[in-house]
């Protein structure tokens, strides 16, 4: 099986790579600067199953260059993990458009642009699974705390992208889902988060492995439970 994973230089993305390599899967892993991705480079030097390719998801030219490099390669599963939180110290009354748009470029627009560009690769694959790392804070029904306008809205909008993809690609038997990784001990989640990356990734991979066409267009927690939109 061939798996494309974005945003793999640390945290959840790096754990995805490690887990799949243990299962002897073939991985295309992306990061913005491969020369600064020490852990990934070490893994790449120890196995022929890992291909490390540079990709800045916020840059359309970088997306074009990346997809030209992988032209003709079958991709069975696409895991869109790359994402940013954005400014943490901005509250209602102090927003500006640029900071909001910068987060939307990475969290919402890039996943769709990349999916469009790799559709030929995905059609060559067998599983046709699209797993987008979203967040429970993007759930409108679950929002009882307010705030986090930039990050929340970027993930809510991503969820709409995923839902539309699940409908538009359904006739080709693609499966598109949103995944909440849990509150994870990463740079984004912080040291007080509830679970580590291994627990999060192990759970999400179990969800991905068990996906069938009837699951397309759904929003799942890392433990397999459903999350309201």
Structural class: alpha/beta
What does the oligomeric state look like here? single chain
Task: Write down the Rg.
Answer: 17 Å
**Overall form:** globular
- Give unreliable regions as ranges: none
Terminal CA distance reads 30 Å
Secondary structure: helix percent: 25-40%
Average per-residue pLDDT, rounded, comes to 94
* Helix/strand order: EHEHEHEHHEHEHE
Largest beta sheet, briefly?
A: 7 strands, parallel
Strand numbers in spatial order across the main sheet: 3-2-1-4-5-6-7
Kindly state the number of beta strands.
Answer: 7
Percent of residues in beta strands: 5-15%
What is the count of DSSP helices, taking H or I runs of 4+ residues? 7
Short summary:
This protein has 229 residues and is of the alpha/beta class.
Can you walk me through this structure?
The chain has seven helices and seven strands. It is of the alpha/beta class. It has a seven-stranded parallel β-sheet, sandwiched between helices. Strand 5, helix 6 and strand 6 form a beta-alpha-beta unit. Helix 3 packs parallel to helix 4 and helix 4 runs parallel beside helix 6. The protein is globular. The protein starts with a strand and ends in an 8-residue tail after the last strand. The model has no long low-confidence stretch (mean pLDDT 94).
Keywords:
7 helices, alpha/beta, 229 residues, seven-stranded parallel sheet, 39% helix, globular
List the helices and strands and how they pair.
Layout: E1 2-5, H1 11-22, E2 26-31, H2 38-44, E3 50-54, H3 60-69, E4 77-80, H4 97-117, H5 119-124, E5 129-133, H6 149-168, E6 175-180, H7 197-209, E7 219-221
Parallel strand pairs: 1-2, 1-4, 2-3, 4-5, 5-6, 6-7
């Amino acid at each position: 099986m061939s798996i494309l994973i974005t945003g793999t230089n640390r945290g959840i993305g790096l754990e995805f790579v490690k887990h799949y390599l243990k299962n002897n899967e073939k991985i295309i892993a992306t990061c913005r600067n491969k020369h600064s991705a020490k852990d990934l480079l070490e893994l790449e030097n120890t196995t022929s199953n890992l291909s490390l390719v540079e990709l800045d998801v916020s840059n359309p030219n970088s997306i074009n260059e990346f997809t030209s490099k992988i032209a003709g390669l079958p991709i069975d599963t696409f895991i869109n993990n790359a994402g940013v939180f954005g400014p943490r110290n901005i509250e209602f009354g102090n927003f500006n458009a640029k900071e909001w748009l910068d987060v939307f470029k990475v969290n919402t627009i890039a996943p769709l642009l990349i999916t469009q560009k790799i559709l030929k690769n995905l059609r060559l694959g067998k599983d046709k699974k699209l797993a987008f790392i979203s967040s429970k804070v993007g759930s409108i029904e679950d929002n009882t705390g307010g705030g986090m306008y930039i990050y929340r809205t970027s993930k809510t909008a991503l969820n709409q992208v995923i839902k539309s993809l699940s409908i538009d690609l359904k006739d080709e038997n693609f499966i598109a889902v949103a995944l909440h990784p849990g509150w994870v001990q990463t740079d984004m989640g912080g040291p007080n988060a509830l679970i580590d990356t291994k627990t999060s990734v192990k759970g999400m991979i179990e969800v991905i492995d068990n996906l069938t066409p009837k699951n397309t267009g759904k929003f799942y927690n890392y433990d397999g439970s459903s999350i309201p939109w």
